[in-house]
Amino acid sequence: MSLDEHKAAARRAAFARRKVAYDRQGPGAAGKLSEVLAGHRGVALSGYMPIRTEIDPLPAMEEAAAHGPVGVPVIEAAGLPLKFARWEPGCALTDGPFGARIPAALDFFEPELLIVPLVAFTRAGGRLGYGGGFYDRTLERLRARRPTLAIGFAFAAQESEDLPLEPTDQPLDLVVTETEVITIRPSSG
Fold this sequence. Notes:
two-stranded antiparallel ribbon; 189 residues; eight-stranded mixed beta sheet; Rossmann fold; alpha/beta; globular; 4 helices
């Protein structure tokens, strides 16, 4: 099986687990994410507008917006890093690429903390996304400029023992689920 086939199979299995968790628990569960973000008040952060069966970070983003800038990702084109547009609770939104909503008025900024959506994760900080490489390119670019914290946000059911990862895949620093906060230990080597 090729790496692409292995990733496709891992995504299918993870999407199925995520749908079951979403249907059982609903899109909420941002309480633990709010607790983590409280330790980073005022730090420029990006969340995301949930699509399909993604866990919903909006309640935590709304709380964070009272203390500092919050944004959401904007896809400009395939192969490019993401840009981040300022978002506020109740701001006017429009449809962006891939079904995610984005602010109607695009005021771009660079976050230092990213709440990262994902399909599957490992306790070692591995992340399987949708396959476009947007977050990998973006995290690589941001981390080259300054420390940037990547917080994966997912249902606990999205955890995998092992994922097919590549050297270009950017690791997560934390994973927050509806049941726990997983701190990733840097690998020695």
